[in-house]
From TrEMBL:
CDD domains: GMPK, PDZ_MPP3-MPP4-MPP7-like. Residues 209-279 form the SH3 domain. Gene3D superfamilies: 2.30.42.10, P-loop containing nucleotide triphosphate hydrolases, SH3 Domains. Residues 354-542 form the Guanylate kinase-like domain. This is MAGUK p55 scaffold protein 4a.
Length: 559
């Protein structure tokens, strides 16, 4: 159990400087010791040569003690673990003062000056938590300052140390002129109660900023970043992580927590501009490019092995061509420009169109199977957009049912006007999914389910569609072997061949896809047992449509 004694303002008889003895988080058993320490400290401030009883009398009649009673107790205690502990400690102090020493204190003066240069003595009890503050040295003056106070850390919760405070002494050791490492060494060697003497920063910024929520679009590891001021205070994150940014006051280093939040203490992360400048240095870009390269190799392997099949085959044939010609719509380029994406919770109002549901997954993982089963389960709720094709209509087919049958000229006109989410060629005929077809499903009040290549997600990330992206992930090769005994794959070369030893490659491709695109995924579904996966898919979709979800703030703004 810890106690907090609120700020005690001690005004020395010699006018200045004003001394704040601010003790906080005192161990319960050590209250008496600490209070005696405070009195000792004050004794030093007014001179040791005064008779003890006289000194006490003077202390108890002094303005600084009166101002102690002026402290807003409730407010000061809001940071501490126990409110009653704070009041109890003060009343103990009061009863000592009132009962043992006369006279009764006169009423508080209302005109205590508050613009004097002040020194604050902050007493923290060291436990196994870090202090939660970093220091910096002014190279010209050699002065040591509190550089930042980590949100939710011990120093922050004390409410007594702030960024910009000048650190004068640590446990009686003057720190001016020391290197920051030497100060840290003093702190490391100190045990129990640590006494800081600081001159508060008069213009300290309020640390009570409203949190901002960001989705990380890049990976970050503080241990690999030579520029971070304090690697131990850094927080690693991965693409797709949701971050609660609690402090953006520093242009270079923000403070954030990862959600769902386990840690009360924030960590340092580079600001968006800092990450962008790192991008320019190509500091973090290289591993990403390696990833992209690996993925292309992996997908190419599937292509050359003819692993892909069926309806989605036309996408594969165009995939490499599009990658070469259209790099601007690649999610990478966007992620490089926007290391963080600001997000907000959104709940779809019942009168609005349903959110577009996008399924993505490695070839053969079962995206198509899940989509078909979902629609079969409830065709009046779920529907896929009707694709366009240039192939001739067959007997029994109806335009607008299986496909929209269009001429090659019309198809190419639609391509030029960016009307296709994706399109490709198979056996000399063009196939594509248009945005109009998606709109049509949504307009009819249905939930539109599409499965696309992950690099097509970016094109659909619009305020109008507010897509919810579900990544269909491969289970382990062992589970694939067990669950896919009867599964068939259709390739360019072999119709309906059985899965053989493709499972390791399938899992690898799935992992690579997740690593590269996970910043765009709202949910991950492991397609292990088919029936279980279907049930989970239904429940994920219901939540996406009916419960609050994080979306980019730009999708929620009204123009
Ligand atoms: N969970 C599962 N358990 C057993 N078999 C499955 C499961 N999921 C999918 N399958 C089967 O695996 C085969 C491939 O599935 P599907 O065609 O849906 O893959 P896909 O990811 O859509 O790949 P493609 O894009 O190449 O069509 C199909 O025979 C399908 O029935």
């Amino acid at each position: 159990m810890f106690w907090k004694v609120t700020d005690i303002e001690i005004k020395s008889p010699l006018n200045s400087p004003t001394v704040f003895v601010s003790t906080c988080f005192l161990a319960f058993s050590g209250v008496t010791d600490i209070l005696s320490g405070v009195v000792d400290d004050v004794g030093q401030a007014v001179g040791r040569n005064i008779d003890g009883a006289q000194l006490l009398y003077e202390l108890l009649s002094a303005p600084w003690l009166r101002s102690l009673l002026k402290v807003p107790i409730q407010q000061s205690c809001t940071h501490v673990d126990s409110l009653c502990s704070c009041q109890a400690l003060l009343s103990t102090h009061d009863s000592v003062a009132q009962s043992d020493y006369e006279p009764v204190l006169p009423p508080l003066p209302d005109d205590l000056p508050d613009d004097e240069e002040a020194m604050r003595i902050v007493c923290l009890v060291k436990n196994n938590q870090p202090l939660g503050a970093t220091i910096r040295r002014n190279e010209e003056t050699g002065e040591i300052y509190i550089a930042r106070v980590i949100h939710g850390g011990l120093a922050d919760r004390s409410g007594l140390l702030h960024s910009g405070d000048l650190l004068v002494e640590v446990n009686g050791n003057p720190v001016g002129g020391l290197e920051p490492e030497e100060v840290i060494q003093i702190l490391t060697n100190s045990h129990g109660t640590i006494l800081f003497k600081v001159i508060p920063n008069p213009g300290q910024a309020s640390s009570n900023q409203n949190p901002v929520y960001m989705k990380a679009m890049v990976d970050y590891c503080p241990l690999q970043d030579a520029s971070i001021p304090c690697p131990d205070a850094g927080m690693a994150f991965s693409r797709g992580d949701l971050l609660e940014v609690v402090d953006q006051s520093d242009a270079h280093w923000w403070q954030a927590r990862k959600l769902p939040c386990a840690a009360s203490c924030a960590g340092l992360i580079p600001s968006a501009s800092m990450l962008k400048s790192k991008q320019k240095e190509q500091w973090w870009r290289q591993p990403l490019q390696r990833f992209a390269h690996d993925l292309i190799n992996s997908i190419s392997w599937f292509l050359s092995a003819g692993f892909r099949r069926s309806f989605r085959l036309w996408r594969r044939t165009s995939y490499r061509k599009r990658r070469q010609s259209c790099t601007t719509c690649s999610p990478n380029s966007n992620a490089l420009n926007t290391p963080y994406e600001e997000v907000a919770l959104y709940q779809r109002p019942p009168q609005e169109n349903h959110r577009l549901i996008i399924l993505v997954g490695a070839p053969g993982v079962g995206v198509n199977e899940l989509r078909k089963r979902l629609i079969k389960l409830n065709p009046s709720t779920f529907q896929s957009p009707v694709p366009h094709t240039t192939r001739p209509i067959r007997p029994g087919e109806q335009s607008g049912t299986e496909y929209h049958f269009v001429t090659k000229e019309l198809f190419e006109y639609m391509v030029c006007n960016h009307r296709f989410v994706e399109y490709g060629e198979s056996k000399g005929q063009l196939y594509g999914t248009s945005t109009d077809a998606i709109d049509e499903v949504l307009r009819r009040g249905r939930m539109c389910i599409i499965d696309i290549e992950p690099h097509g997600i970016q094109f659909l990330r619009t305020k109008k569609l507010k897509p919810f992206v579900i990544f269909v992930k491969a289970p382990s090769p062992e589970r694939l072997r067990q669950t896919r005994r009867d599964a068939r794959i259709i390739t360019n070369f072999t119709i309906n061949r059985a899965f053989t030893d493709d499972f390791v490659e399938l899992e690898e491709a799935s992992q690579l896809m997740e690593a590269k695109y996970r910043q765009f995924f709202d949910s991950v579904l492991v397609n292990d047992d088919l029936q279980d996966a279907c049930i989970q898919l239904c429940s994920i979709i219901q939540q996406a449509q009916n419960e609050p979800q994080w979306i980019p703030v730009s999708w929620g703004r009204t123009e």
